[in-house]
Amino acid sequence: MRIEVAGQDAFIVYFADQTSASVSADIQCAVANIRSQMSDIVVDLVPSYASLLVIYDIDECDHFEARRRLREALKNLKAEESDGGELVTLPVYYSLESGPDLEIVAARGNISVDDVIEIHQQGEYRVYAIGFAPGFAYLGEVDERIAAPRLATPRQKVPRGAVAIADRQTAVYPAQSPGGWNLIGLCPTRMFDPSKEPTMPVKVGDRVKFRGIDRDEYLSLGGTL
Predict the structure, then answer these.
(1) Which end of the chain has fewer CB atoms at under 10 Å, N or C?
(2) Domain boundary, last residue among 73, 96, 114
(3) What order of strands is seen across the sheet that includes strand 10-14?
């Protein structure tokens, strides 16, 4: 773990060179410690794959004192890989209608479309980061059998709710946007809704499971085709 300056009022803490469930759990433990011990000076915390951005109030604390307190807050992190975050279940309508790249993912892994759907549902995925767009949660890691590279030519429009795979990550598109991930289904759950509190159903450190639903249930839950 190392602390580096990220601006006149910020540090970035690097926990490892690459992410893992245990690294993610350590980051969440650090977030809890910092919020508890530094609430009087912390302005914002931005967790990512293997790092944490800490923004503090320079009117309340100078650089040296902020670093000292940050080091104290990061001592003796105790996080269990199986713990940390909520378990969130998201419904998905898997089909060739809703997942135009299902056959591509299946062919790449030399398995059937049904196998892709089953394997995707079997996994429990950690929310490693949220970015690209509000509510876009990067989830990992998918089974190697269904891992697939990004499309050579991204789509101009990916629909809101599209469930997708890129390399060993999976995600749900929170809004219509361009995108180059492989689409395997549609999720009716809104991944970002500014009118609600909280605005997103998941946060960094949470765990996500996917549950297959049929077309009728997808539409009844507010999904669109």
Answers:
(1) C
(2) 73
(3) 2-5, 10-14, 51-56, 42-47
